[in-house]
DNA sequence: GAGGGTCACTGGACCGGTTCAGCCGAGGGG
DNA sequence: CCCCTCGGCTGAACCGGTCCAGTGACCCTC
């Protein structure tokens, strides 16, 4: 049982393929009566456009690509990507666009994937995430001429359209809040130092600490895993000038840090306040529940997808500054004992 | 600057399109010298096959579909899906297949997506996850004639090829281990009751408890969220016949359960032993670290992808019983006080 | 040296749509 | 009444590949 084609519809309706094409695409060139008849037949025999045939005429592929280049074992760790994907998805599926996903090992492989997808006409554009400082992918996709939206600060995005949130403001809000509580020794457990948003947060952290006249505000870099988060926390809490508050760059490290503190017989929040970047069920489930920086990650993804679809449609898309992360206070922060 | 086509190559090489096609596809019909010349030219001008044109000739779409039908907010919660996807991916990208992903709201929408993908020639097959009891999707995809591999027990997969793990054995191993430690009152905090693997685990749990002559072995069903896991735990621990061990159906509920126990001033593992289904950084990070049932989820996904590619190639694929989850003991299980 | 077979390659149909030039008939204006 | 316009439709080219039938050259064989 072959898939019905417009030729089948044309035969049944007694018109030409061309007329059917006009009718199905809502274009002028057929009378309303004929259009209705054709649509009815198409519907009845369950016709679906063959995207391959459409794509062949230089039309859109109706798909966008996303290549994730964190190692697989880190991907599962954070809910970030899954939430991002579901946000992207929501926007795409509303427009009947599909999402092509690939997990790659490094940036070189990632570019290979984009080149292939773009070269094969499989995608109409792509979303770039996890920008590095001086990211080599940016000039490469610029040269390819593929529509691309970058998730991250415009400073690293070259001429590409970016969707970003004001991490600076979030860092400032957090530190000011902790200082208002009475903290003077605040530390930061950061993610991968080569990521551009890590650099931005690091800088903002240093600036705010200086502005507020705080003493040494140590930053420890990690790879986002619980193990490294725990190790960093242990190191910070063993130092002579033990911080009274730590801001973690993700939820899993914050929880690991909480465990370390409790292991060391420190009370959270009396002896140590903890803030996590990005909320998750995990943060709400532990005792005490964690004060977090909340972002609407699906919205973030949806906005990026929106911008990308605009670009693909040839509409000039403006960079978008998304909502800054908001501080949601819970039981893990309090004035230092 | 148009993308190069085989016609361009043919012109440059002074041969016909047909010859170029044979050369590029490694088919007989051209001399080795000509083939080499054509490949060199193709390489030089950066030719890539246009999959649309290929697909039009009834060839493969070189993509497989995965529609996830859990609500977005649950997807981020568990690392399961991300790990599964990265496993599927690993297998697919080795064969240059792409993964089409869509997050849908319910089974009806999911079938709509599959119908569209299949109808439009976008995918060559799909992977079905989270089988329900009497899953309506099974007969529907059977009727569509689309190659499909099911992740789940064959009993729910109809005539479809399935990849599954022996959850029965895992449940048995876990309960026997707890009983060997001296536990007699064991409870299970299960996932969604309409999922077929929940039913299988439920049944196995009941059988093993009966076999070992245990008293009432309560099962509480949840939606996999931390909140419901906490509520279920609270209920179980407040009952007159308080269990001394609880087996949770995922990591997030187990951690929530741990928090509840600690809130109720119960010592884990002295007063309550905890086992979680599926390991995650989360389980290793909490205090005490959780005893878990470990599965190699990426392998699980890779095997499913492998089977699916075989099916697509027209090779008859056999169902595969994957490794059963293995018990990894950590600090959360001990003899009851 | 005629017949047969193989090899390397050509030309063109074909996949399922889109799109454009052109045709026909009806209606309107002069 | 004729000419022009325009709506509604047809026929065919086209997108970039695949693949099949056919062709000509060459070699082998009896």
Automatic annotation (TrEMBL), chains A, B:
PROSITE patterns: HTH_LACI_1 (PS00356), HTH_LACI_2 (PS50932). Keywords: DNA-binding, Transcription, Transcription regulation. Coiled coil: none annotated. Residues 4-58 form the HTH lacI-type domain. The keyword Hydrolase does not apply. The keyword Transcription applies. InterPro entries: HTH_LacI, LacI/GalR-like_sensor, Lambda_DNA-bd_dom_sf, Peripla_BP_I. This is LacI family transcriptional regulator. It comes from Microbispora hainanensis. The lineage of its organism: Bacteria, Bacillati, Actinomycetota, Actinomycetes, Streptosporangiales.
């Amino acid at each position: 049982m072959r898939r019905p084609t417009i030729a089948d519809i044309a035969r049944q309706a007694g018109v030409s393929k061309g007329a059917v094409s006009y009718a199905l695409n809502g274009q002028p060139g057929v009378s309303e009566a004929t259009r209705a008849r054709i649509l009815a037949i198409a519907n009845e025999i369950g016709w679906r456009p063959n995207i391959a045939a459409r794509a062949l005429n230089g039309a859109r592929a109706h798909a966008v690509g996303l290549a994730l280049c964190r190692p697989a074992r880190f991907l599962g760790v954070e809910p970030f990507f899954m939430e991002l994907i579901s946000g992207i998805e929501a926007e795409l599926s509303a427009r009947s666009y599909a999402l092509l996903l690939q997990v790659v090992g490094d940036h070189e492989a990632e570019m290979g994937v984009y080149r292939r997808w773009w070269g094969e006409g499989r995608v109409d554009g792509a979303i770039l995430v996890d920008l590095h400082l001086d990211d080599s992918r940016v000039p490469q996709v610029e040269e390819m001429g593929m529509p691309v939206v970058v998730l991250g600060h415009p400073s690293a995005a070259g001429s590409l359209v970016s969707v970003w949130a004001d991490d600076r403001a979030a860092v400032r809000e957090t530190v000011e809040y902790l200082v208002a509580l009475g903290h003077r020794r605040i530390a930061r457990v950061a993610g991968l130092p080569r990521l551009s948003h890590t650099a931005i947060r690091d800088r903002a952290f240093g600036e705010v600490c200086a502005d507020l006249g705080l003493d040494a505000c140590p930053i420890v870099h990690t790879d986002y895993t619980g193990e490294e988060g725990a190790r960093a926390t242990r190191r910070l809490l063993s130092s002579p000038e033990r911080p009274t508050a730590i801001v973690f760059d993700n939820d899993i490290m914050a929880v690991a840090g909480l465990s370390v503190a409790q292991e060391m017989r420190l009370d959270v929040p009396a002896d140590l306040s903890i803030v996590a970047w990005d909320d998750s069920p995990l943060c709400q489930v532990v005792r005490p529940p964690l004060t977090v920086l909340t972002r609407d990650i699906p919205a973030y993804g949806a906005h990026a997808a929106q911008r990308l679809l605009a670009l693909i449609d040839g509409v000039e898309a403006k960079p978008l500054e998304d909502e800054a992360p908001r501080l949601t206070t819970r039981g893990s922060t309090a004035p230092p004992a």
